[in-house]
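Problem 12. The chain below contains 380 residues. Write out its predicted structure in token notation.
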Amino acid sequence: MACIAIVGAGPSGAAAGRHLALQGHAVTLFDKSAFPRDKTCGDWLTPIALRELGALGLDLHALDALVPGHAQVRRSILVSPDGRRSEHPSAPQGRCIRREHLDALLVDQAVRAGCRLVRRTVRRVDRSDPEWAGFEHLIDARGAGSVRANAVGVRTYWTVRHHPDTVALADEVALHTDARHRRGYGWIFPVEIDAQMLTFNIGVGLWQRDSRPGATVTDYLSHFLEHNPVARRLAPHRLGETRRHGYPVVLGGWRQQVVDAGVLRIGDAAGLADPLTGDGIGNALISGRLAAAAIGEATASGADAAALWRRRHAEQIAPELRRALLLRNLLVSTTAKNLATAVLDRGPAHWRARLHAAIFGSAPYGALLSPRGVAGEVLA
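Solution.
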């Protein structure tokens, strides 16, 4: 078995660590933070991400027991700049869980599988560094902060009291597009529910090169909270609001650098976030699993682990990122978003099902063009 160092114990690193430890490898996870720790994110878990969590010992029953009160997503909603809505049932359901809880659970699963967790700030992940001489494989899972980000998000939490206007939103995830920021969107996701209160994650995301004076991501969030009809519906019932936090995002492009001088890069460190929705957790977990499989095969066969990981990425992740990028490019203009939402709202139900399944992570983007459609691709 191999000795493996993983730098970064977020979703991709913890997932890779658990998969590798269960194979019998000696895995050391390095992270600068103690867990649990807050992590700024949208907190949305797609069905694809939930499938990966199940493979890590965190199925829906485990999540219900370990994170009581988290939101269960039964509906997905797309809102166009002109206010038209396209709504569809989420099948299977998604979830929303604060990253503070999710990341701690993943690290715990990795440690339970046999990983050694070391709290340390690592500034350089380079095979030539003597620090890594004792490890046969080195994985960079440091997240978006370790590479050049191309997008930025900012979010706040609103706690609201129970009221028909707020409870009605407790099981839906909604993406709101905007005419002012053509490649950005706002979101309103339920996160926690108890007998008296609900908590919503409300935020916006924006490509960095679209930011300009008077139209930064912070300006975008202020405008969104003031003018969005759903935010205005929640506002009278608000009991509290957290400080607004920004965070970098590395959206997937046409190509990703998943190997760097023998170092395997996974998750946000490899730029694997969905370029249409900004979701990074699903691909982070998938990349951790695939990189672990590559190392396992390399250990058994003597093949090059980096080449095997590169091939798995090219076959299973890159095509989906490219499909998402193409779809995003088709939907840049305000006219295109308005027209697409109108077609979804009025058009054939099977097209609405396909697009919602792809965007909200019930099925791969490839299902949009598959003759089998969502029925053949949707997750069980």
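Discussion. The CA atoms of residues 54 and 62 lie 9 Å apart. Students who got a different answer should revisit the alignment rule from Section 12.3.
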